Amino acid sequence: MSESPAGLPALVVGESSEATAVQRFLDREGLPCTHVASASAAGEVLETTGASVIVLDIDEAHSDAIELCRQVKRDSATRLMPIVLLSDRSADRDLAKL
To answer: Which residues of the chain, if any, have pLDDT below 70?
Structure first.
């Protein structure tokens, strides 16, 4: 079984089919993964368990997702944690809002 950096699971946030697909891929590859439905649930996981990377669906509860990013980057313990943003938005004007 492969290990993620620092031995911590990846944290997948969102209920979209894209977030579920990422979680299934990580599981198939043998990488530890925690999948939660919301940004608030992700905050709880980060406080208790931690994570090596966050995969965040920003199309669901957009403002909560952006606030989670801000919290992660403000905290010195998680500031360097990578965050991968998932979005089904394709128009430049939509992406500029992020």
So the answer is: 1-6, 60-62, 89-98
Angle at 75 between CA 19 and CA 21, to 5 degrees: 5
Starting from the edge strand earliest in sequence, which strands make up the sheet with 10-13, in order? 33-36, 10-13, 53-57, 83-86
Q: Which two tokens stand for residue 19?
A: 């977030």
Pair of tokens at residue 28: 């198939």
Per-residue pLDDT, 93: 56
Distances (CA, A) of 58 to 6, 61, 68, 78: 25, 7, 10, 19
Across the chain, how many H-helices and E-strands are there?
Answer: 4, 4
Rounded Cα distance between 32 and 55, Å, is 13
Q: CA of 70: how far to CAs of 32, 37, 39, 64, in Å?
A: 24, 18, 12, 10
